[in-house]
Each structure stands twice: as C-alpha cells, then as structure tokens.
Amino acid sequence: MNKSRKNNALWFVLLLLACMSQLLHAEAQVRSSKKIYVAQHGRDRDKGTAKKPFATAHKALATVAELKKGGYKGTVEVILQEGTYYLHEPLVIDAEESGTAANPYIIRAAEGEKVRLSGAVPLNQHWEKAPDGIWKTKLSKGLSFQRLYANGRQLIRARYPNFDPTILPFQGYAQDAIDPQRIAKWKNPEGAYVHALHIGRWGGFHYRSSGRLPNGELVLEGGEQNNRPSKMHPTYRFVENVYEELDADDEWYLDEETSTLFYKAPAGVDPNKERIEAPVLESILELVGTEAQPVHDITVKGIHFVHTAPTFMKTTEPLLRSDWTIYRQGAIKITGAERCEVVDNDLYDLGGNAIFVNNYNRQVRLSGNLIERIGAGAINFVGHPDAVRSARFRYEQFVPVHEMDTIAGPKSNNYPRDCEASDNLIRHIGLIEKQVAGVQMAMASSIRVLHNTIYDVPRAGINIGDGTWGGHEIAYNDVFDTVLETSDHGAFNSWGRDRFWYSKRTEMNEIVAAHPKWVLLDAVKTTTIHHNRFQCDHGWDIDLDDGSTNYRIYNNLCLSGGLKLREGFYRVVYNNIIVNNGFHPHVWFKDSHDVFRHNIVMRSHKDIQMRHWGDTVDYNYYTNADDLETDRKKGMETHAEVVQVVFKDPSTGDFTLRDNTLAGFESMDIGKMGVRAARLAKEAAQPKIPVITSKDARLTNETYTSNGAEFKTVQTLGEQSAAGLPSISGVLIVNLENSSLFVKSGLRVGDVIVEGHNQKVDNISDWKVLLKQLENTGDLTVIIYRNQQQEHIRLHR
User: Fold this and answer.
1) What is the CATH number of the domain that holds 786?
2) Where are the beta strands (DSSP E) in 81-180?
3) 473 shares its domain with 587
4) Does the residue 465 lie in any domain?
5) What's this model's pTM, rounded to 2 decimal places?
6) Cβ atoms of residues 235 and 175 within 8 Å
7) End-to-end CA gap in the chain
8) Could you report the per-residue pLDDT of 209-232, keeping only the tens digit for each?
9) Does residue 466 share a domain with residue 323?
10) Residue 83 belongs to a domain
11) Residue 109 belongs to a domain
12) Helix (H, G, I), strand (E, B), or coil: what is residue 196?
C-alpha cells in the first residue's frame, strides 16, 4: 500500500472515530439529567446547584434556555425550594426551550415543600393610625392594584353595601348602590367600580366611573362582559373603590393621586405586624408556542400559584353566538403547546382565570390540581375564530344561505384538541366575574373532562359554548352547588348556535328543512356525557340550550333540576336517573331525531311549546302512575312503565338499583364519580342528597280566555327560559284562534306579554286590567318577548 492510500485510510479511521465519539456524546447527553435549584437563600450569580442555588425562578429558566440553545437534549428539572417567590414579570417558556417525550422539561416544587409563585408585590410600608381608627401609608408613586391581602386573608375594597359572605349575589347588593343621593356623598366618584348582574341574570357586567353628570348620575364606561347586552340589573348590584364607603373592618381604599393606602383594620390588629400583599401581575406562567413551532413536553408540578390581578374590565371578546365574552389570560396561560401537563398544583386567591388553554394546543393535560377562590373561571379551553367557518358572534347575527360555507369541520388547526382536564377539585370561583365555569370549552374539539369535583360556582360547573367541533367526553364528574348567583343555566350547560343558527325560528325552520345536513357542519363529532352526578337547585342538572347538537347522554345521576333539551338535533338520552324531576323538552325542531328512552323519571315531562317530538320519547320508567298518564295524553310514552324503584342507600347518595331488573336499564356505580387524587378527595365536599318525594308540588295551570286567545301566567323556570325572560313573570299566549284580534295585531302562540301602557304584566290579574283598557279604548301597545328578544306590538280593534 502506498503512502497516499495509508494516509487516506488513517484519515477515514480518524473520521469514523470522531463520528462515533459525537454519537456517543449525543447519546450520553440525551440520557443525562440536569437539575437546577432555586432557593430563597440562593444567589443568581451562583451556579444553580443544590449547594449553590439560584435566588429566582427567572434565572433558572434563563439558564435552561441557554442550555437548550447550546444543544443540550437531556432531561431538565428546575426544582424550587420552600418559600414565596414574588415575580416582577411572568415566567415564560417558548418553543426553543421544549423538552422531548423521553426527556421532558420539568418545573416542580422540592419534594414535600410548599412553594408559592406570587403575582403580588409585598408592601413593607410603615402604617400610621388616624384618630378615626383608619390606618394609612404612603406607597411608591404609580403603584396600582385592585386586590389586597393581609396575612393571607383577602381584604375588601371599600364598598356599598358592605361585604356579607352569606348573601348572594356579590356577597351583598343594593338597589340604591348608585342612586344620585348616595353618589352626592362621594367627594370624587372617578375610579369607582359598579358590578351588576345582567337584567336576565345571564352573567355579570362591570363598569368604571369616569365622573359625575350634572344630574348626579355616574358617567360609566364598560359593561361589555356579556355577549347578550342588556341594562344592568336594577337590584343585583354594588359599588366599590369609594373612600366614603370605607366603613367596615378589613376594608381598604387606594388614593392613586396621592399614592395613599387606607385600611380599616379590625380592633387590636396592627398592619405593621401583618404581611400585606398586593397582586399586580395578570399571569404567573406562560407556555408560548405556535402550530409551526409548538412548545412541548413541559411538566409543571406541585407549585402554588397565587395572587394575580383582577381582569374583569378586559373580559370583552365575544365567543361566537354564546352568551360569553372572555379575556385570554390566566395565572397559567398555555398557547401553542403539545404534550404539556400541569399536575398536582394549587391555584388560589387569583383575580382572573386560573388556567387558560389558548388557540392551537394538542395533548395538554391539566390534572390533580386544586383551584379555588378565583375571580373568574377555573379552566378554559378556547380556540381562535379563524378556525371557524362562517363565524358569527352575536345572538341576533346569522349567515345568509348564499354565503354559507358548507365544508364540514374547522378551516384551520388553531384550536385546542385532544386535551384533558381530569381529577381536579374546583370550588369557590367566579368571585368577581359571573359568566364563568369550572371547565369551559369554546371553539375546541375532543376535550376530556373526567373525574373532576366542581362546586360553589355562580353559573355552570361545566360549559360548552358552541358546537365546534364536538367530540368532548364529560364523564365521572361530581358537579353541584351550581348556578348560585345567575339564572337560566344548568350544572352542565351548552349552546350550539352554529353556522346554521338563526335567531328567528320561522326562518331557521326553513333553512333546516331545506338543508338538514347543515346542522352537523360544525358539530361533526358526537359529544358524550356519561357517569356524572349533577345537581342544580336553581336551574337544570343538564341543560342543552339553543342548538346544542350531536350529543349522547347516558348513565348520569341528576339530583335536582332534571334534564333539558332545547332546540337541537341528534341528542340520544338514555339510562339516566332523574331524582324528583323529569324531562324538560323545549321547542324542538321538526325532524330533530332526538331520542329519550329507558330513563328513570319521577315527574311528568315539562314540555314547552312542543309541536314535534323527535324520533323516540318512549320506553321510560316512571315512579308515579299519574305522571305517566299525563304524558300519554300528549300522545307519547306508549311503552313506558310504572315501576317501584328501590335504590341501595339513597340517603348516602348510593342510587345503585338494588334489583336491576329493568329491561334496557344498566345500573351505574356512583362511587366512581368525582375527584380521585387522595389529597383532593379528602378536601372535597359532597352534594346535599335530596329526600325522594312521590309527587310534585303542583303548580296551577289555570288559563284565561279572551277574544279568541288563551293566556296563562308564567310560573316556571322552563317557561322563563323558553321565552328568554329576565324573571319568572309575564303572561304566556298558549292558544290563538285565527279570527282573534290578537292574531290580526301580530301576536303569536308562545309570545309572552310583560308590559302594557307602561304597566308591568306579571300575571293574569295584571293582564285582565289591561284587557279592560283595550275594550274601552280599542288601542293598547304591549311589550312582548319573542325569540328571546323584546318587541313592541300595537293591539287594536
């Protein structure tokens, strides 16, 4: 072999050895594990080791970013040791800092240690006590906040009426909260906040005062927090952030002009000896990626997320045609993520949302978390409208037939899919905002909501805002003490005002008849609701509202409010136990293909304006013969049976059938419902189990006939919901003869009369008085509700 060939062979061997060395190094790096420590006694100029930890989480995350940028591919753990870490800005992890399935990026608390990541600023000022008993202190100029905590307890911003935890809504409300007579007592009303319910109690509104009008009323800005706008409720409202209302223990007021903080401490309490914290950050941790470059394989575990700022004035983005508006923010915000998980954390004392899963996300898991004392919603999965075909945002908006995009499903991937919220304990939420839920889904698909315990919420425990794009699984949840401050909702609540939807029923009937397949263009996958325990004493246990389509509902225990299906298609409901209540079908479409069979019901069907009864409403099991007879007179339940149902131990919540011999009915295991994690299960409350009663407290259905029309007083939540009324009041038109003067004037069956000649019409007695006026004058203008909207109609002879 000549010298040249020898040199080439040597060069090849050296190259091969170098490649092997690089491969071995890369493999060793992949198998390696790097631990970075953070402790309150640490220093950021140190190395982040167990013996020389960093002082801040920001430094730890920046070190991980440098490692990743340098090509490190092994597992990374950022380990936070015990203590409270006050953040000056949110922690952010982007796509370049991602882990891998084999080597994740983990941020966790040290084993057995309590770690708090706080969005608050600690106030270490000196307090002075004035003769009137109010303490005050000077703050840094420009410091602004809307919440304050002393030794971990939330203080109350000066308000009227005073805070009372036993009163709902708002822990106290007053009709005169913003009357000119009260406003006149305030030296400077600028900066006051008014919180009120929607006039129909469909959520809340929030306003900021920018001054006072010559007539003494407030100049208000805001009120955009509900996608079904209305006036604020005349009674359910309160005002805060007014110095003159600083009159109760634990109240505070911040004068931003002079940077002076006032605090009415309880007797014997010295704020100089308290730990005072003021939340200023909206978010604590953000995972930020995109579909093209997702952040992935991140685990956040065992950390307490506390003290974020309220965001109620920013909750203004409408969600398609549901009643909701949102603000895309949370103590933890996840955008553009894959295979990330938030597990075994505590999130509490937050001003806004706890967790917001935003736009494109896949296989994000939120599990084993305690979420409580939250100003807004607990868990939100919300996609982007650019993924929606023929999107519309307000209830009254519609898509003209010639403009309809008739391609099924989403038009982009910019939405959460195949994600999970499981085994979480969620309670005491919606303390400021009322249009919230324990778990909310909108513009999302195939979200699994499993084994959660959710209670003490102002509205629904679980909410689906639209039909896009279905495929959700809602199973093994325990949801109770719901709809505590609002109205016309359920423990589970949904809408489906998708692209086929039209708020005027006659036009929608024509569209659906002409294009029956359009109802499934958005609700392309079946959503299943099974093996849950639901309880709502102020609405329905399960409430599928306007347009909710393509559902399969089975093996649920409904403890109080019953099960409601309003307009929609392809709902199959079977094998449910409905305690002390029954089925509430409302205004169904022709050819809805709905099915209600093999359910145990304890009351007759509470149908509202039903002209079509779907494919099957039959084969159900009644506990009362009179109820079955009532429903058979409506022309249904031909094959239904009256049975004597014996449950194992209903007093303790065990509604398992003792003798499961009902054909077509499968007994269910109640014990598997709710949170399973041991640390959360021992904390979770249980619903109040009702005593089974044999009969309804029957309402009078007395009607009144006049001039070819039959009327009745609105008496039930179902009648209120069907008409979209703000309260259970008014007079419902139940029948009209074609020759009636009311038909000639434009009234229809199903209309509800609520006012005439500037006089409220609450009941038949009120209506009789106005009918006398019509007889005498031949002319009467009334206000009615039709298609859930107000209209004025002139009645004349």
Assistant:
1) 2.30.42.10
2) 83-86, 91-94, 105-109, 115-118, 120-123, 128-129, 135-138, 149-150, 153-154, 156-157, 159-160
3) yes
4) yes
5) 0.90
6) yes
7) 121
8) 999 999 999 999 999 999 999 999
9) yes
10) no
11) no
12) strand
User: Hey, what are 697's tokens?
Assistant: 């407290």
Annotate 463-497 with b (16+ C-beta within 10 A) or e (fewer). Answer: bbbbbbbbbbbbbbbbbbbbbbbbbbbbbbbbbbb
Q: What are the C-alpha distances in Å from 144 to residues 259, 265, 519?
A: 9, 20, 49
Q: Which domain holds residue 776?
A: 703-796
Q: Same structural domain for residues 583 and 717?
A: no
- Predicted pLDDT of residue 24: 46
Residue 99 inside a domain? The answer is no
Give the pair of three-digit tokens for residue 49. 């080791």
Q: Cα–chain-centroid distance for residue 231? A: 22
Same domain, yes or no: 758 and 660: no
Length of the chain in terms of residues written: 797
For the chain, the domain total comes to 4
Write out 719-769 in H/E/C secondary structure.
HHHHHCCCCCCCEEEEEECCCCHHHHHCCCCCCEEEEECCEECCCHHHHHH
Which tokens is 128 given?
């002075």
- Which long-range contacts (C-beta less than 8 Å, at least 24 apart) are formed by 665-671? 665/575, 665/598, 665/600, 665/621, 666/555, 666/575, 668/531, 668/555, 668/557, 668/575, 668/577, 669/531, 670/533, 670/557
Mind listing the pLDDT tens digit for each residue in 635-645?
Answer: 999 999 999 88
Got the DSSP string for 413-431?
S-SEES-EEES-EEES--S
In the numeric block, the tokens 């036993």 are attached to: 166
Interatomic CA distance for residues 720 and 608, integer angstroms: 10
pLDDT tens by residue, 309-325: 999 999 999 999 999 99
Q: Which residue has the higher pLDDT, 628 or 698?
A: 628
| pLDDT tens by residue, 33-48 | 999 999 999 999 999 9
- Cα torsion angle, 73, 74, 75, 81, sign: negative
Q: Check whether residue 401 and residue 537 sit in a common domain.
A: yes
Task: Record the tokens describing residue 233, joined without a space.
Answer: 């409720």
Residue 177 φ/ψ region, left for φ over 0, alpha for ψ in the -120 to 50 degree band, beta for the rest: alpha
Pair of tokens at residue 344:
């075994």
- DSSP-derived 3-state class of residue 156: strand
- Classify the phi-psi angles of 223: left when phi > 0, otherwise alpha if psi is within -120 to 50, otherwise beta: left
Concatenated DSSP letters for 199-240?
TTSSSEEEEEEEEE-TTS-EEEEE--SBSS--PEEEEEEEEE
CB 591 within 8 A of CB 516: yes
- Distance between CA 171 and CA 302 in Å, rounded? 32
What is the separation of C-alpha 327 from the centre of its chain, rounded to a whole number of angstroms? 12
Amino acid, res. 573: V
Burial class (CB in 10 A: 0-12, 13-18, 19+), 4: exposed
3-class SS of residue 385: helix
The verdict on 339 and 255 lying in the same domain is: no
Clarify whether residues 478 and 364 are in a common domain: yes
720/674 same-domain check: no
Could you tell me if 105 and 96 are in contact, meaning their C-beta atoms sit under 8 angstroms apart?
no
Q: Which residue has the tokens 């991602």?
A: 98
